[in-house]
């Protein structure tokens, strides 16, 4: 199976990427901190914008988010998180992720 994991530089995303990369092809997205996981494809994209991935994807695991830790403005946090989800839904439709 092919996995796309967002927020793979964070605690939960990195653990999931490590686990699934043992037997699957994993694409990991990061935005600020680089990913230190081996045996995964690392991509640096802003998922608040249209997501372009050439590979087929079977599973999307969304662990990225804008929070008060990395932003002080509630409106930006809300809009960013909504845009991430919309773009991931569009990606799932495009790639026919079930």
What would you say this structure looks like, in words?
This protein has 2 helices and 4 strands. β1, α1 (about 10-20) and β2 form a beta-alpha-beta unit. The protein is of the alpha/beta class and about 100 residues long.
In short:
The chain has helices spanning 11-20, 74-95; strands spanning 2-6, 25-30, 41-44, 59-62. It is α/β, with parallel strands linked by helices and 98 residues long.
Comma- or semicolon-separated keywords:
single chain, 98 residues, alpha/beta, four-stranded parallel beta sheet, 33% helix, 19% strand
Walk me through the topology:
Elements lengths: L1 E5 L4 H10 L4 E6 L10 E4 L14 E4 L11 H22 L3
Parallel strand pairs: 1-2, 1-4, 2-3
The spatial strand order of the largest sheet comes to 3-2-1-4
Q: Using only CA atoms, what is the Rg? A: 13 Å
Order of helices and strands: EHEEEH
Largest sheet: 4 strands, parallel
Percentage of residues in DSSP E strands = 15-25%
Oligomer: single chain
List low-pLDDT spans: none
Alpha-beta classification: alpha/beta
| Mean model confidence by pLDDT | 92
- Which term fits the overall shape? globular
Distance between the termini: 12 Å
Helix content: 25-40%
Tally of helical segments: 2
Q: What's the β-strand tally? A: 4
């Amino acid at each position: 199976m092919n996995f796309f994991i967002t927020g793979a530089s964070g605690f939960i995303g990195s653990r999931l990427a490590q686990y699934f990369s043992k037997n699957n092809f994993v694409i990991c997205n990061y935005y600020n901190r680089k990913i230190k996981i081996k045996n995964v494809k690392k991509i640096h994209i802003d998922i608040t914008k249209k997501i372009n991935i050439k590979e087929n994807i079977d599973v999307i695991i969304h662990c990225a988010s804008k929070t008060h830790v990395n932003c002080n403005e509630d409106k930006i946090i809300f809009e960013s998180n909504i845009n991430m989800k919309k773009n991931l839904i569009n990606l799932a439709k495009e790639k026919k992720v079930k």
